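step=encode ok
step=design start
structure_in=
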């Protein structure tokens, strides 16, 4: 049976809040199945022009030159938006990483662009880790943790389908061929991520008892794949369909503009640094599906 999936990938037309239909609303993210290696495909000239306009909007919001409309969100709405949307951004980044790693290993992407771009994506994920964890510990334990428990008592980030594609990189095991300055930049980005991950865990869950550990202690059954991945996707409002790089980037840019609008209206600690990381990711997301092959030796 074939089910049609609507991809919300229209690019924003202004710096006013459009995402989700209202400030701090959510949208479903559509990604290829993790089992579908595939290729991002080619970008049309119309795609390139549209992406460039959206990147300019992101920069305008970051620089405070535009009206946003996200000032009215309450604490729970903002926290929930950051938690869900920040994770969706991470999933799209992991997909871009997976495509890039395939091309690097196959020689379709040159190391001069490819390895620094991979390091950029690792830094982007670190930025989203800071963004999603920017809530007070009280709100995390009152809102976020119970919502994961209701999805499954042993809910775990290890169930994320797209993370499995890039897990080795975040564990300090880069793909073959990472040498020179690009390799060092990637290693530094991974080390920063690992330190940040430990800091976030210590701040939000001081006792170190994740839901998964509590579930094991309580002897809750762990769902097998693919059910675990489906449960994870469902919680984070993510669906799977055969979409290409242009649609992935368009969905990502919609989210990055909304995140930038949020940061402009309600900046957390380190908000300026996060805003810069969002702007950098917007442009490097476009690079990741377009120009990365230009420095392949001929």
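sequence_out=
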């Amino acid at each position: 049976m074939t089910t049609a999936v609507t991809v919300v990938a229209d690019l924003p037309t202004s710096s006013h809040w459009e995402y989700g239909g209202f400030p701090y609303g959510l949208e479903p993210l559509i990604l290829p199945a993790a089992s579908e290696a595939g290729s991002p495909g080619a970008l049309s000239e119309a795609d390139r022009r549209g992406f460039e306009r959206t990147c300019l909007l992101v920069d305008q919001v970051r620089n405070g030159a535009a009206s946003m409309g996200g000032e009215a969100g309450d604490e729970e709405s903002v926290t929930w938006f950051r938690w869900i949307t920040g994770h969706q951004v991470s999933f799209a980044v992991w997909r871009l990483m997976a495509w890039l790693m395939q091309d690097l290993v196959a020689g379709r992407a040159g190391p001069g662009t490819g390895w620094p771009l991979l390091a950029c994506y690792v830094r982007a994920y670190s930025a989203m880790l800071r963004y999603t964890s920017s809530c007070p510990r009280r709100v995390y334990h009152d809102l976020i943790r119970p919502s994961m428990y209701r999805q499954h008592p042993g809910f775990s980030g290890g169930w994320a389908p797209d993370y499995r594609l890039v897990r080795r990189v975040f564990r300090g095991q880069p793909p073959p061929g990472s040498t020179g300055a690009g390799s060092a930049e990637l290693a530094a980005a991974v080390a920063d991520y690992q330190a940040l991950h430990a800091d976030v865990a210590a701040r939000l869950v001081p006792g170190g008892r994740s839901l998964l550990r509590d579930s094991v202690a309580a002897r809750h059954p762990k769902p097998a794949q693919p059910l675990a991945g489906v449960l994870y996707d469902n919680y984070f409002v993510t669906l799977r369909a055969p979409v290409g790089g242009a649609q992935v980037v368009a969905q990502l840019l919609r989210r990055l503009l909304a995140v930038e609008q949020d940061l402009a209206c309600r900046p957390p600690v380190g908000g300026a640094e996060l805003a810069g990381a969002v702007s950098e990711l917007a442009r490097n997301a476009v690079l990741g599906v377009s120009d990365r092959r230009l420095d392949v030796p001929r």
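step=design ok
step=annotate ok -> The mean pLDDT is 88.
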